Amino acid sequence: MRRKIAAADPSSASSAAGLPNGGGGDSDRQDLVQLSSAISNGDDLGPFVRRAFASGRPDALLSALRQSASGRPPVPPLRRRLPQVLPLRLQRPPPLRRRPLLSSLDAFLAARALAANLSSALSAARRCARLLSLCARANAHLAADDLYLALRAVDAVDRDLSLDSRDPLPLPLPALRRMLARAVPAVRAYAQRRISKDFSDWMVRIRVASRHLGQVAIARASAARQREEDLRAKQRQAEEQSRVGPLGAPVYSLDSDADADDIAAAAAQSSSSSSDDGGFNSPSAAQWFDLTPLYRAFHIHQTLGLEDRFKKYYLENRKLQLTSDFQVTSVAPFLESHQQFFAQVAGFFIVEDRILRTGGGLISRPGVDALWEAAVAKMVSVLEDQFSRMQTANHLLLIKDYVSLLGVTLRRYGYAVDPLLDVLAKHRDKYHDLLLADCRRQVSEALAADAFEQMLMKKEYEYSMNVLAFQLQTSDIMPAFPYVAPFSSAVPNLCRIVRSFVEDSVSFMSHGGQLDFFPVINRYLDRLLSEAVDASILRLVDGGGLGVSQAMQVAANMAVMERACDFFFRHAAQLSGIPLRVAERGRRDFPLKKSRDAAEELLLRLLRSKIDEFFLLSETVSWMADDPPPGGNDYSNEVIIYLETFVSTAQRILPLPVLRRVLHGVLAHVSDKIVGLFLSDSVKRFNASAVTGVDADLRLFESFAENLSGLFADSEESSATELKMAMVEARQLVNLLMSNNPESFLNPVIRERSYNKLDYKKVVAISEKFRDSSDRLFSTFGTRGAKTNNTKRNLWMH
C-alpha cells in the first residue's frame, strides 16, 4: 500500500524530495539524506520521483537510488533486469505528457478512498435503517397487541447487536447502540408482563366458564339418561301389552362428536340468561371457554425461552383454583350448592382434557391424573361428611343422582370415577333406612286419613290414575262413570307410596356401577311391605277403632292390595331391566298376609259380636211353651235380616273367597250360639215345642245358606253346602233332640255318621234339661229312676 501524501507546489515538492533544484551543495546533500531516510523507512517515493521528472533532473534521483541500492541484497537481481528496462526508458513520454497521467492517478486514488468511505457510510446507514425499521415494526406490533411479532422483531434487533461486538466495523452511532441495548430487554419484560396479565384474566374467566361447562355437560348426560329411560318405558308398555320380544337394554351415550367446543356452544345459549357473570360484562360461555389467551401466553413464554417456567406456573395456579373450588361454604346448605360444586369440578376437568389434547405439551397426562386423584379424594371426603349428616332420603337421592351424572360425564373424558360410585354404594343401606322411615310415616298418615268407604270416581282420568296406574282392574272394559270402586282411598295412596319407594330405590341403585340390582330392590321392597305397610295395617286393625263396615272395607282393601303387590313386583323387575319370566322365578308369597288375616279376623269378630247382640233376644224365648213359635223366634229373624244386609253390601266389595270365609265363620258362630242356648244357665228346662222352635230357627239359617248358592256358583273353593256345614253341630243336636230313637247316639257307627260333631258332655248336660210327655227315651233323662241313671252312665262311659 502506498501512503498518500498531499500535493504541494513545485518548489516545496522539490525540497521535500531532496532533489537538486538549482541550490548549493548543502541543499543537495540534505535532499539526499531525506531520500535515503525515506528509502530506509519504506516511505512512499512517489513525490520524489514526480519532483525529479517535473524539474527535468531525474539523473540525480537515479544516482541516489543506485547508491542506496548498492548496499541491498535484492539489488543485483534487479541490475540484471536493467537492460530489459532501458528500452522502456527510451519510450517514456516527454515530461509534458506524463503530468496528466499522474493527476488522474491521484484523482483515482482520492475517488477510490471516497468510494470506500461512502460505501462504509451507506452500509452503516442501511444497518441503522434496518434496526430502526425493526424498532418501528416492534412498536407497531406492540400497539396492535401482537406480542409474538413484536418479540420476533426485537429478537432480530438483538441478533444484530450481538453481531456488532464481533464486527470489525461496529455500529457508528454509540447512542443508538446504547438505546437499543436498553430497549430490547425492556420490550421483553413488557411482553412478559402484558401476557401474564392476560393469562391472569383468563384464569378468572375460565373458572366461571368451567361451572357453565360442567352444568351443560351434566345436563347432556341427564338428557341421554332420560332418553334411555323413555325408551325403556316404551318397552315396558309394549311388554304389558303382551308384545313378543325380550326386554332390551339399549345404551345411550353423549354424542360422539360432542366435545368441549360443542358444550361451550351450548353453554353460550344458556349463559345469556345467567346473572352470574363473574365480574365481566356478561360475555358468552363460548368466549369464556376460549383457550386462545392461554395458548398465546404459552407461545409467548416459549418465545421468551421461559416454557418450563410457564408450565410450572400454570400447573400451580390450576392447583390453587381446584383447591379453592373444593372449599364448601357453610353459609348455604350443601343440598343447595352441590350442583354448582360438582359442575365446577366437571368443567375444570373438561377444560383440562381439552388443553391436554390441544395444548401442544402445556400439560401432561400424569399431571392431569394427579389433579384428578386429588379431586376424587376431596370429593369422596366431602360426600362422606355430607352423607353422614343427612337425615332425609330425598336429599341423599338428589345428591346421588347428580354425582352419578358427574361420573357419567367425566368417564366419557377418560377419568376414573369408581371411588365416587363406591361412596354411593357404601351409603345404600342408610338411604333405604331413611326411605323406609319416610314411607312408614306416609303409610300411617294415609291410613289415618282414610274413612274406609268405597272410593267414588267421577271421571275417566281418576280411574286411570287410581286403578289402571296400578293394574288394579279386574276387567279390561272401561266402567261407566261415576264409578264406585271396591276399595277405599287408602289403597291408591298406599300404591303411590310403594311405587314411589320402588322408583326411588331403583333410581338410587341404577347408574351406580352395579348391573344386577333387582334382588336388592326386591329385598328392600319386602321390607317396606312387611315393616311399613303390613305393620301399619296391623296396628290399625288391633287399635279397636273400626266398625263392621270399616273392617269390611279393610278386608276388601287387602284383597285389592294382593293384586297391587303383584304390580309392585313387576314394576320393580321392569325398572331393573329384568324380564318378568326371569323375575317370576324368585317370587314370594303375599307379603301382607298377616294384616289380611287380621282384617278378616277383625271383621268376623265384629260380626260375631253383632250376632251376640241379637241373641240377647233369646231371653224372650218360652222354653216350656205348649206350642212352638210360628215363623221361628225373634232373634233368628233379626240375625237373618242383618246377615242379608251384610251380604248385599259385602258382595260388592269383598272377593268371594273372603266373603265365603267370613260367612262360614259367622254361621259357625250362630251354630255355637244355638248350642249355647240349650247349655245356658238361664234355661233350666225346655220341652219339645222349644226344640221345634229352634229347629225352625235353624232352618231359616240353612235356607239363608242355600240362597247363597247362586252367589258362590262360580267359586271352586266353596258352595252353599259348605256354608250349611258350618252349622252342623246345631243341626245334629236338634236332630238328636227331635229323634224318635235317641239311643242310637250310643251306637258308635250311627254316632260317627250322624252325630260326629256333638260333644258327649254337652249332650248329657242338655238331656238333663229336656222334658217331654211322650214315652221317648229323652223323657226319662229328666227322671230320677234307674233307667235314667243307666242311660246317663252309658253316655258318660262313651
Summarize the structure.
Keywords: Cytoplasm, Exocytosis, Transport. The chain is built from 32 helices and two strands.
Describe this structure in words.
There is one protein chain. The chain is mainly alpha-helical and 798 residues long. Among the domains are: 427-598, Exocyst complex subunit Sec15 C-terminal domain, N-terminal subdomain (Tetracycline Repressor, domain 2, Orthogonal Bundle), CATH 1.10.357.30; 621-769. The chain is built from 32 helices and two strands. The protein has helices at residues 10-17, 25-41, 46-55, 58-69, 75-91, 95-143, 147-164, 174-240, 260-271, 285-288, 292-303, 307-325, 334-358, 365-389, 393-411, 418-426, 428-449, 460-466, 490-509, 518-542, 548-575, 580-583, 593-615, 634-653, 656-679, 688-707, 720-724, 728-737, 748-754, 760-769, 777-781, 786-797; strands at residues 456-457, 483-484. The protein has a two-stranded antiparallel sheet with strand order 1-2. α3 (46-55) packs antiparallel against α4 and α23 runs parallel beside α25 (656-679). The longest helix has 67 residues, at 174-240. The chain is rod-shaped, with a radius of gyration of 62 Å. The N and C termini lie far apart (169 Å). 31% of the residues are buried. Residues 1-24, 243-258, 270-286, 773-777 and 779-798 have low confidence and may be disordered. One of its GO terms (cellular component) is cytosol. Residues 228-242 have a biased composition (Basic and acidic residues). It comes from Ananas comosus var. bracteatus (red pineapple). Residues 419-769 form the Exocyst complex subunit EXOC6/Sec15 C-terminal domain.
